[in-house]
Automatic annotation (TrEMBL):
One of its GO terms (molecular function) is N-acetylmuramoyl-L-alanine amidase activity. It comes from the Bacteria. Its EC number is 3.5.1.28. InterPro entries: DUF7940 (IPR057700), MurNAc-LAA_cat (IPR002508), N-acetylmuramoyl_amidase_3 (IPR050695). This is N-acetylmuramoyl-L-alanine amidase. Keywords: Hydrolase, Membrane, Transmembrane, Transmembrane helix. The keyword Hydrolase applies. It is an enzyme of class 3 (hydrolase). Residues 143-251 form the MurNAc-LAA domain. The chain crosses the membrane at residues 21-42, 54-71. Signal peptide: none annotated. GO terms for cellular component: outer membrane-bounded periplasmic space. GO terms for biological process: peptidoglycan catabolic process.
Length: 257
């Protein structure tokens, strides 16, 4: 085989550049599912070593891979008109509770993304308030509730007492059983205690008063206390396992809907 003249400069040719880009996306489509699976089993401690300047790009890459993996595999297990809403508390402009460098709004995005992934893998149609590192405001999250079979927003609790721990899911009385099951799913992974009524908090008895997301029919899960160093570290390291257990509850709920 004879190479073209000046083959070392071939990368400058538009045809070569387009071909390389096409090959990259073709490979991403082919192996997106495998990439996501590998990404899921990488410990969070190792992911934390990703340089800050690269985190946004990695988040976008993972988000694209998740979308492509979902497009490749869509088992029709459920009615296409049914869907689950999964949102992350607070937003990119509202950090929520903060513990040192840890921000609630960043923390909960990880669980939201993982939960959405597992639900989609099971064939459940999912709507979220963002992809990757995106975390839209509450007003956007509330709009997603209408028409969904269940809407779950992920939060982290906080307290002045740094020893405070526990899991709770806030909802209207009609969703008491589901709220308790979601809290127990988290407890199965973290071993933390269930707050309120076996993991359920009736919004009418919540110290927070009426919450717009709950008033519109959604459930708010407080995974644990970000103010507690040990609990926040545990949740961060087991975020994908927590999401997987929650997904089992929602998948079963969807099957009965």
């Amino acid at each position: 085989m004879k190479l073209i003249d000046n083959w070392k400069q071939a990368w400058k040719l538009k045809s070569v550049q387009v071909g390389a880009i096409s090959a990259f996306f073709y490979a991403l489509i082919l192996f997106s599912e495998q990439f996501v699976q590998v990404w899921n089993i990488i410990p969070q401690d190792l992911k934390n070593y990703i340089p800050a300047q690269w985190q946004e790009y990695v988040g976008c890459f993972v988000g694209v891979a998740m979308i492509l993996a979902r497009l490749k595999k869509q088992p029709e297990l459920y009615n296409v008109n049914q869907f689950v809403t999964v949102t992350a508390g607070h937003s990119n402009t509202d950090p929520g509770a903060v513990n040192g460098k840890l921000k609630e709004s960043d923390f909960v995005v990880i669980i939201r993304n993982a939960l959405a992934y597992y639900l989609r893998e099971a064939g459940v149609t999912v709507k979220t308030d963002g992809i990757g590192l995106q975390n839209d405001p509450l007003s956007s999250a509330i709009k997603l509730i209408k028409g969904s079979n269940v809407a779950l927003e992920i939060h982290m609790n906080a307290a002045i007492n740094k020893a405070a721990v526990g899991i709770e899911t806030i909802s209207l009385p009609k969703d008491k059983k589901l709220a308790q099951d979601i809290s127990k799913a988290v407890q199965k992974i973290t071993g933390s205690r269930l707050r309120g009524d076996n993991g359920w908090i009736d919004q009418s008895k919540s110290a927070r008063g009426k919450l717009a997301f709950v008033s519109n029919g959604g459930l708010i899960l407080e995974v644990g206390f970000i103010s507690n160093d040990d609990e926040s570290m545990l949740i961060n390291s087991k975020a994908w396992l927590i999401a997987k257990e929650i997904s089992k509850i929602l998948i079963e709920y969807e099957g009965k809907a």
